Amino acid sequence: MSRAHILTAEGEFTASRMAEIHKSSLLIVGAGPAGYTAAIYAARAGLRPLLVAGMQPGGQLSITTDVENYPGFAEAVQGPWLMEQMAAQAAHVGATLIEDTIVAADFSARPFRCEGDGGAVYLAAAVVIATGASARWLGLASEKALSGFGVSACATCDGFFYRGKRVAVVGGGNTAVEEALYLANLASHVTLIHRRDSLRAEKILQQRLFAHPRISVLWSATVEEILGTGSPAVASGLVLRDVHGGGTSTLPVEGVFIAIGHQPSTAVFRGQVAMDGEGYILTAPGTTRTSVAGVFAAGDVQDKIFRQAVTAAGTGCMAALEAEKWLATQETHAALAAD
To answer: Does the pLDDT value for residue 321 go beyond 60?
Structure first.
């Protein structure tokens, strides 16, 4: 029998999820900045939302050490702590947080239906999808070991820590070139490493990259290992392999940024709402509305450009406000709210 850990304003408890049915006016799927913010606003609006946290409560910030760019904190704060505070705030104002993972969704009829991995069923008049996205990694053991200690997947988030230092960016698309250009304003030198002999990035971005005096490109090279020194170990260099000749070389750097793309966590919703070719959920311009009335998307599931905690929180607010307005016109909302 599977059991669910539930956090409410009244306290914490564990309950059986076997054949259990949860009903709510608003179901929020995902527990990053977007999901928690949606829960806070929805709870304050009296919607009594249910938030199903998913496999990684706190999203990418749960594995982020120093966070310096979230408004309201003069000093750097720890990502896990920030997420804990958001969760506590959501529960305090009336949201119910459930540690479960949605494995199936059906938006073809109302109320909308989602299923948890332990068999629990969630019925809701409206849904906010806030399951986030994750960076694609190289898959190296050293990359995982040094994540947060010189290895990052977000230059906007962490570039500030590498002012005046030598860094490397791995990748060849728009994201990699944009990361390199951004870092060149902070680092002493940026080396872009690409496994091919040409970039996939837009021509205008390539022109800016090649013209920048603090950026160089290493072609036809792959990263074999990320070197670390010190205790705790921090990134100090890269072992590179030449794609054509097979030889290896070492590149001293103090920071490594992996920029080979992101993967939105939307597979469970495929076929239920419209998505682009990469799996990002499509929303109406300037809104969080998806192709299904009553289903909203917030955060990195629909934002492939900014991917910041503060922008995710902003769209979480938007989703809750839009859901509140939409629910006010729905009979299903009144029926579920009365249960």
So the answer is: yes
Q: Catalytic positions, please?
A: 154, 157-158
Q: What is the DSSP letter of 302?
A: S
Query: 1: pLDDT confidence band, cut at 50, 70 and 90?
Result: very low
Q: Which of 126, 128, 127 is nearest to 332 (CA)?
A: 126
Query: Quick one: CA dihedral 83, 312, 315, 293, positive or negative?
Result: negative
| Beta strands 255-258; 102-106: pairing state | unpaired
Q: Is the bond preceding 232 in cis, omega lying within 30 degrees of 0?
A: yes
Q: Which helix (H) or strand (E) holds 189?
A: strand 189-193
Most distant pair of Cα atoms in the chain: their distance: 70
Q: Within 10 A of 196 (CB to CB), how many other CB atoms are there? A: 11
d(CA 288, CA 226): 39
Q: Say which DSSP state 315 is in.
A: H
Q: What does the pLDDT look like over 190-246, one tens digit per residue?
A: 999 999 999 999 999 999 999 999 999 999 999 999 999 999 999 999 999 999 999
pLDDT > 70? residue 85: yes
Q: Alpha carbon 27 to chain centroid distance?
A: 19
Phi, psi of 260 (to 5 degrees): -110, 20
Report, as an integer, the average pLDDT of 244-261: 96
Can you give the pTM of this predicted structure? 0.78
d(CA 109, CA 119): 20
Q: Do 54 and 102 meet the contact criterion of CB atoms below 8 Å apart? A: yes
Beta carbons of 51 and 31 less than 8 angstroms apart: yes
CA–CA separation, 243 vs 79, rounded Å? 37
Q: For 186-203, what is each residue's pLDDT tens digit?
A: 999 999 999 999 999 999
Structure tokens at 13: 């408890």
Burial class of 159 by CB neighbour count within 10 A (0 to 12, 13 to 18, 19+): buried
